[in-house]
Amino acid sequence: MRRPDARRAVFLGLFVVAVGAFAAIVWRTGYNQALDQLARRGQADLTLAADRLTGQLQLYQQLAVLIADHPSLDGDDMAAKRAFLLQSADKTAALDVVLVDERGRVEVSATGSAPANLAGTEYFRRALHGALGEAHGTNSATGQRAYYFAAPRFDDRGQVIGALVVVANIEKVEAEWRGARPVVFFTDRSGEVFITNRSELLYWRRAPEGVGLIPPRGPAPRFETATTGPHEIWHENWSPYVPQAALHLSRELPRIGMRAEALIDVSAAQRIAWLQAAVVAAVCLAFGAILFVVTERRRTLALANTKLEGRVAERTAELSQANAALRREVAERSAAEAALKKAQDDLVQAGKLSALGQMSAGISHELNQPLMAIQQYAENGALFLERGKSGPAAQNLSRIGSMARRMARIIRNLRAFARQESEPVSRVDLVKVVDSALELSEARLRSDAVHVDWDRPTAPVWVTGGEVRLCQVVVNLIGNAVDAMAAHDVQRLDIGIRRDGARVELEVRDTGPGIEEPEKMFDPFYSTKIVGDSEGMGLGLSISYGLVQSFGGVIRGRNHPEGGAVMIVELVAADADEASARPEVA
Ligand SMILES: Nc1ncnc2c1ncn2[C@@H]1O[C@H](COP(=O)(O)OP(=O)(O)OP(=O)(O)O)[C@@H](O)[C@H]1O
Ligand SMILES: [Mg+2]
Q: Which of 237, 339, 341, 569 sits between 20 and 30 A of 24, alpha carbons compared?
């Protein structure tokens, strides 16, 4: 149980790490894409700012070139010259417009703020050489930043006779985009910030390492640089108005000898990248969670299934074992039943043979009598024939025939009785069975002078049973009754058949002493007959009990209130199968 848990924990850990890694990749890609976009827009902004600056400065440059040769500046009327210069300065918002002679001395100045001699300046020297001089600097008198353009003045022969200097107000140029985004600054060749839309960065210098800026005075604030793909990111805290993390862009402006630089806030790009990474991570985690739950559920189900299968297999094995044991038992039972059946059959046969043995004396007497009679009748018949009396002879012959028929009947009955009946139960006429039993017992009945009162029905009474076995039962009952009445004066045997719904009852009543122990009479080997007298084995009734039961009937015995025993054999009526299916009305 512990091992799968540990495995699951490792798997979960790996999954979380994988999601983290994937989110990091998404963040990096998103950030790079956003930076690319920022850089494109920033470059456009930077170009715009640079173009605007150079455009405006160019205006002053052209102004210098244009008015350098203006006729108003020829002649000696200083007041007129000054007025013209002032007018030009006012119209173009220049700080000053100055006329300088070839030695650098200021002839006329529009505002009068120019220093007396410009001979030492680089831009004047360039103008003296006939080129356009340019310079930037801070006016020492006003403290204003200015851009100087010096255009040479030529005489008619093309000799430089002086120069015209236009002083452009940088702050005025700058004023229009102060505070605008992004942060833009222009550094000159010395690396000093000269123009910017963030005044706090003014006069900062490029750091000695070549990247970043340091203030003109005091300690340098925190500054770090990093590269993300092709982009350079500056991290600093120079001012609240300069983004702390910014994309640095730059562009050389050779025309005015400056470099334009911009700092673009990357926090928006970072936010977008974070958002994308967070969404991706959330989706992955949600998907992972669903997958986890589904897998868990499936695992639990599989576990339960395995358990169930195991239990089913166990149960099946137990059942198969029980089944095998049952089969064995059934086989044993069947064998025992077969053995029992065989034993019972043997017993029935033995019972019959025993009855035959008991009857044999009577039977031989029974056969002997007609034989003797036949002999007598034959001799008489021969005498009558010798005497020529054919009438009486024929009479004797017919008597012989009837005697022979009687003998044949007795023998037929004996043969039938001795036969081992093998068929199952069938439809049997009970009247005929009683007739046969009486005939078989006839010798015994006659020798004991028993009076038989057989209330014989005229029509057959059909019952379910085996003919021979049923006959055996009746013979036994008659035998028992004759035995019981042996010592009695009145010897009467009443036999009757009663129909009661689906049942048929055969009643055999005698005038004997009655049954001693009715509850024991059906026990095997129970006999009250002394061995040697009637030689009772005590099997007759127990065999009869089993036979009647096998026909679906019952045999019972009781003592009659007026004396004697009454034996009743209750059988199933064979023509009342349908009636037996109905509830019996008593
Ligand atoms: N009609 C009867 N009157 C009195 N007693 C009877 C009668 N029929 C049976 N019995 C009693 O029941 C006993 C058992 O009868 P059962 O026929 O089983 O054996 P048995 O007649 O003694 O011997 P056998 O095996 O030769 O028939 C008899 O010994 C007798 O005591
Ligand atoms: Mg008997």
A: 237
